[in-house]
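Quiz preparation item.
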């Protein structure tokens, strides 16, 4: 994922709120790719119920980023994603931030929580983090 000129703030680094945009883009792009579905057309919407970010390093335009994700919890109506943003450097990847992003699925009409659509649950199951033995 490329950084954009507009991502930088007055201090010359990517502004903290922009990291949440990277999280949102990574999760929804992955959902569309993994399901082969335009998730906007499903009868359930994944709305963001919680986010957090721990900043570990600075990024700035024109950095190139990689965003990793896994699922730490796959519930009945919610999915908790763990994300990591890495900056590409000549020496490899440098961890810049770690975050958590929770989607709660709601009916597109009533906005009341409902079960995760099967097409999303199937794709999500492949990313569920397995406990280390």
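Solution:
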């Amino acid at each position: 994922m490329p950084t954009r000129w507009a991502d930088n703030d007055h201090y010359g680094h990517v502004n903290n709120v922009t990291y949440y945009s990277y999280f949102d883009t990574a999760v929804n792009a992955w959902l569309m790719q993994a399901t082969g579905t335009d998730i906007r057309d499903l009868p359930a919407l994944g709305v963001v119920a919680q986010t957090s970010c721990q900043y570990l390093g600075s990024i700035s335009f024109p950095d190139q980023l990689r965003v990793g994700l896994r699922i730490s919890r796959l519930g009945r109506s919610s999915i908790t994603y763990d994300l990591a943003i890495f900056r590409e450097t000549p020496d490899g990847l440098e961890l810049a931030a770690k975050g958590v992003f929770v989607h709660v699925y709601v009916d597109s009409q009533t906005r009341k929580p409902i079960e995760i659509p099967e097409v999303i649950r199937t794709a999500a199951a492949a990313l569920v983090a397995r406990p280390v033995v």
